[in-house]
Amino acid sequence: MKKKLVGVLLTAAMAVSALAGCGSKEAAAPAESKAAEEKTETVQEATEEAEAAEGEEVLTVWCWDPNFNVYAMKQAEALYQKDHPNFKLDIQEKVYTDIEQSLITAAEAGNYDTLPDIFLMQDYSFHKDVANYPEIFTELTDSGIDFSQFSGGKLADSTVDGKHYGIPFDNGATIMAIRSDMVEKAGLTVEDFKDTTWSEFMELAKKVVDANGVPMLTSSGGSEIVIEMLQSAGASPMQDGEVKLVDNAALKKAIEVYKQLIDEGIMVDYTDWDQYIASMNKGEAAGVIQGCWIMSSIQAAEDQSGEWAIVNMPALDEIDGATNYANCGGASWAVSSNCKNTELAFDFLNATFGSSVDLYDELLPNAGVIASYLPAAASDAYGEASEFYGGQAVYKDIVEFAGKVPGIDYGAYYSDIRSALTDAITNVVQNGADVETEIQNAQDTVEFNISE
């Protein structure tokens, strides 16, 4: 292409020179000289443009949130450009519902030309979309990325049948954030709440409730905290492709714990998200168990700086393999089947989100991105004390939490399972329904939805 372009330009330049030679003898010499100079400049410019076009490396990216995901991609682009000056990203901001719909539309039409090279996907969508629309994805197992360096619990969300389809991005490790001042008012310390079981936590929480006159925990969504309890015990709601809610000891225990939290006034559950956030910011609860992304909402109450601390969540009693760690939410980067230069996409993702502690150090203070890339915990940025959390190195602790999260299998039916469990929990708590009966109803509901 470059040779053809230069040849055309040379022919045009020669024609200009020939025309100049038809003038008077007096004008011929300067005209020929000027034409030669213009010819040389034109050919040089064309050659440079052709070489630049041929050397340009461009990847298209779909993601949402300009202050978080888009910002992160721009920083990754700048980092990669240091060793690859011709590299560029075409970042297209799209809300996640639009991304999801575009993926489904492309898959159902069998036309993947509209897809970007890289896209961001909610973690809980991977299993369902890989199962239903496998042609959307490029498998990453042999991409050169060391997946062992990421949180196992987070990684499980984008791993299907032992194959990797996503590079974990933000951290969704579950935290228990508690008001240190309220805890101290009850004659307790933050240390008392670390590495507890739920029965131990209940006894401590009752003292905090009595001393402060507010619930120990605030929550929203009902089934979310139950699912976190389930994951903390490494108990999958799917086994060998089959729904496993019935005879799931960890699930039964988790629902019983949830009911006790509500019945004894230790936890309040809001259906309205704004009320949920307000309960933290206004001191209407002494703590919250949630994915670590909730910290930005907690920190909105600047007058409470120094009065919060972060610990791990309680572990289920009497359940083999129970831990104090879970994951809630987050997203991962995927490569589409429309990517024409997978080698470039793999190398870019590996050099940035797949291995760069420097990138994560940049994203933490400027965008609030907490890494699920485990080596980031050892950096100076993650080891810095947080004034808001009483001098605690919270980000280092959270990455360490993430490294201990058990991986579980939600299969392709996370939304169905969560919806059915929400109904079950509501009936147990509000209507006094039998736990085992409601779990059976939940299983029947999920199996029915799957069969349709």
Can you offer a commentary on this structure?
The protein is α/β, with parallel strands linked by helices. The protein folds into three domains: 2-55; 58-171 and 330-377, D-Maltodextrin-Binding Protein, domain 2 (3-Layer(aba) Sandwich), CATH 3.40.190; 177-326 and 413-451, D-Maltodextrin-Binding Protein, domain 2, CATH 3.40.190. Helices cover 48% and strands 13% of the residues. It contains 18 helices and 14 strands. Strand 9 (238-239) and strand 10 (242-243) form a beta hairpin. The protein starts with a helix and ends with a helix. Mean pLDDT is 89; it is low at 1-31 and 45-53.
- Terminus-to-terminus distance: 54 Å
So what's the CATH class of the largest domain? Answer: Alpha Beta
CATH architecture of the largest domain: 3-Layer(aba) Sandwich
Helical/strand content category: alpha/beta
Instruction: Please indicate the count of domains.
Output: 3
Give the mean pLDDT: 89
SSE layout and pairings?
Layout: H1 2-21, H2 25-55, E1 57-63, H3 69-81, E2 87-93, H4 96-109, E3 118-122, H5 126-132, H6 152-155, E4 159-160, E5 163-164, E6 167-168, E7 174-179, H7 180-185, H8 198-212, E8 217-220, H9 223-232, E9 238-239, E10 242-243, H10 249-263, E11 267-270, H11 273-281, E12 287-291, H12 295-298, E13 308-311, E14 331-335, H13 342-351, H14 357-367, H15 380-383, H16 394-402, H17 414-431, H18 435-451
Parallel strand pairs: 1-2, 1-3, 8-11
Antiparallel strand pairs: 3-14, 4-5, 6-14, 7-12, 7-13, 9-10
Helix pairs in contact: 1-2, 3-14, 9-10, 17-18
